[in-house]
Amino acid sequence: MREFTLTKDQPPLRWLELSYDAASVRERFMKLTTPFASDVLHEMGWKSQVLDSGIYPLVDDMIVAGPAFTWSRYRGPIERERDVGHIDCIPSITPGCVVISDDSGDRTSAHMGDIISMLYRAKGCVGAVLDGNVRDTKSVIAMNFPMFCRGKTPVAGHERSVVIDYQVPIFMHGVDGMLRVNPGDYVFGDRDGVVIIPGHIVLDVLARMEAMAQIEVEMREAVAGGMDPVDAFHKYHRA
User: Fold this and answer.
1) Three-state SS for 2?
2) Which one, of 10, 5, 25, 123, lies nearest residue 65 by Cα?
3) How far apart (Å, rounded) are the C-alpha atoms in residues 191 and 59?
4) Which has the closest alpha carbon to 111: 163, 170, 175?
5) Position 1 confidence tier, pLDDT thresholds 50, 70, 90
6) Most exposed residue of 129, 146, 190, 200, measured as fewest CB within 10 angstroms of its CB?
């Protein structure tokens, strides 16, 4: 990740340097589902890469896929010369990224609303995953911005929960405890939940997911064509 300082009063730019084309990789992920990602990661020995139940899209058919642009939050007011805040992060956005935010234990207020969603989308962000709440949901849904969150509230963040750093490792609630998410890890979510794919194995996982999906297509076609379901299971089952 490239970093340099703009001025003494501004936070550094932190752009992701990806080894793949974000748009084309996202297009491939959008044809798949999170169960494929979870199964592939499990087979590869990564058994705890799913966020725990409760973080779901505002609308069932929303899908989010892209490298992680992380927010580190602080619960409560903070005294410092300069808070980072949502706006200061925007110049560092890599097109195709997904905002992912820890909650610092805050469930009292919203981490994002329609204005921040609009600004981030204008810079190329393709969605958000919040280990917390969102507001202005009607507008967020209308702009077709994929938003995954724990809940909804009209309460603004302001001094209840503030962004104090960005593009740093964060920790989210996962299926087996706290899950570390690094900038550039791949965030993939649909109606079943959210999977975090370590950045250095994204393309390998994607290729295996596509192969797994093809096997299921062939099994369904075989059963539809008259093959005995038990025979089809034994022929195509991955276990």
Assistant:
1) strand
2) 25
3) 8
4) 163
5) low
6) 200
